[in-house]
Amino acid sequence: MLKKIVLTGARGALGTELRPALAKLTEALVSTDIVDAPDDLAPNETFVRADLAKMDEVAPLMDGAEMVVHFGAIPDEGPFETLLGPNYVGAYNVWEAAYRAGARRIVYASSIHALGLGETAAGLDTDAGHRPDTFYGLSKCFAEDMGRMYWEKRGLEAVCLRILSCTPEPQNVRALGTWLSYRDMVQLVERSLLTAVVGFTVAYGVSANTRAPVSNDRVRFLGYRPQDNAEDWAEAITAKERTPRADDMGYTRLGGPFAKVPLGESGVEAIRRMAAED
Asked: Which end of the chain is more exposed for a tag (fewer CB within 10 A), N or C?
């Protein structure tokens, strides 16, 4: 059993799903977010309200931490100035504070938007280079590169999870390839924590979808074996959704709607508009 795990972004959708599983892996779980504590803390879980952009609030969280699961950030595109504190400075603070505290590893919620302008049909693996689609995607590139640097210069391990579309069920035709179920997301984080040695590793957060546009073959050593497949929803989704145009970047690029929006404008709102059009 791990000694202590710190979870950032604990009140977000994915953090909420992770908390019970992480509590079972560790003697002490410290959950943190910028909002108030949830009502369902585990017996070995402590919640601390903290702003990731403030080092004096982040550093105390890391005292005695063995592993850090960093899921805290603004999960959408926005003006660079809006993302700078939570997504850029926050990532630096987490890495630096974890290093100072002697933590062994950071498991980071990166995103497919780090290479969101890559072609969906390219069949990319985990060695694919960065092609960010937004300032949000650029923040993920920054943190991935920082994670590699901290591993190579300071020996702090990192697993960067390029999450595609993590929702309870696949929502649209694009998600037939990009979906990551909550169950598989939890398994991927668990394997990222429990694998003996990872160095610096990039893995895709995607379920065992028949139409998956990316491959985790290079990182099978993690032991991640997804259980769910979006194809189970394919008939219902394709029956109600229009056939996309061949030049629609919302489908031809890995970032989906984020690849289409002007810099600084919400990608989440673009997804909602796509759903409304269908």
From this structure: N
Tell me how far the alpha carbon of residue 167 is from its chain's centroid.
Answer: 12
In this prediction, residue 206 carries a pLDDT of 98
Distance CA 99, CA 154 (A): 8
**Contact predicate 135/263, CB 8 Å:** yes
Q: Which residues contact 56 (CB under 8 A, 6 or more apart)?
A: none
Cβ-proximal residues to 33 (8 Å cutoff; 6+ apart), any chain = 8, 9, 10, 11, 12, 15, 47, 49, 50, 72
Determine the distance from the C-alpha atom of residue 121 to the mean position of all C-alpha atoms in its chain, rounded to a whole number: 22
7, 92, 104, 105, 246 from 55: Cα distances, Å: 16, 9, 19, 19, 46
Residue in 88, 136, 182, 204 annotated catalytic: 136
CB 263 within 8 A of CB 78: no
Closest of 114, 113, 67 to residue 94, by C-alpha: 67
49 CA to centre of own chain = 21
Whether 88 is catalytic is: no
The domain locations on the chain are 2-277
Rounded distance, CA 17 to CA 196, Å? 24
CATH topology of domain 2-277: Rossmann fold (3.40.50)
Q: Whole-prediction pTM value?
A: 0.96
Which residues are paired to 4 by β-bridges?
28
pLDDT tens digits along 92-132 = 999 999 999 999 999 999 999 999 999 999 999 999 999 99
